[in-house]
Amino acid sequence: MNRHYNELVVGRIFIGSAEDTEQAVLSEQIDTVFDVRVNGREGEQAYNYIHAPITEEATAETIKVGAVKLAEAYQAGEKIYIHCGSGTGRAGVMAVATLLEIGVTSNLDEAISQVKNARPAVKVRENMQAALETLYK
Predict the structure, then answer these.
(1) Strand 6-9 versus strand 32-35 pairing type
(2) What confidence tens digit (pLDDT) does each residue in 117-134 have?
């Protein structure tokens, strides 16, 4: 089975699309799934699911809230899967913020580069870039 998600931090943090969540959970033994889409999943999930949306109305604030939750899960030793719809927009932005929160990277440019190296399709839109700069520059 082909893997369509990517490893961001070896054995600990993975990033991908909503569609690949189940495969990542099973293949990587994910402890917690972070869904950063505005509209999350409905109903019960067969895994630990946290809806941490990045909203257009409060982009910087919602990035920070989600990244802090992700950092707490990481520091607790959990394996994490971050996703949005395609795994190339909001998930990439949250991955950037998470790398900075956990101290894997020391600056915003380095974090963006590491995320894009792990998942080349990631695109940081202008408004998301501005929010990241507000938080981490």
Answers:
(1) unpaired
(2) 999 999 999 999 999 999
Cα separation of 50 and 69, whole Å? 9
Pairwise CA distance, residues 59 & 128, whole Å: 7
Cα separation, 4 vs 30, whole angstroms: 15
Q: H/E/C letters for each residue in 38-77? A: CCCCCCCCCCEEEECCCCCCCHHHHHHHHHHHHHHHHHCC
Helix axis angle, 59-75 to 126-136, nearest 10°? 60
What is the spatial distance between Cα 132 and Cα 98, in angstroms, rounded to a whole number?
A: 11
Instruction: Give the whole-number percent of the chain exceeding pLDDT 90.
Output: 91
Exposed, middle or buried: residue 2 (CB in 10 Å: 0-12, 13-18, 19+)?
A: exposed
pTM of the model: 0.95
Q: Where are the domains of the chain?
A: 6-136
Quote the CATH superfamily of domain 6-136. Answer: Protein tyrosine phosphatase superfamily (3.90.190.10)
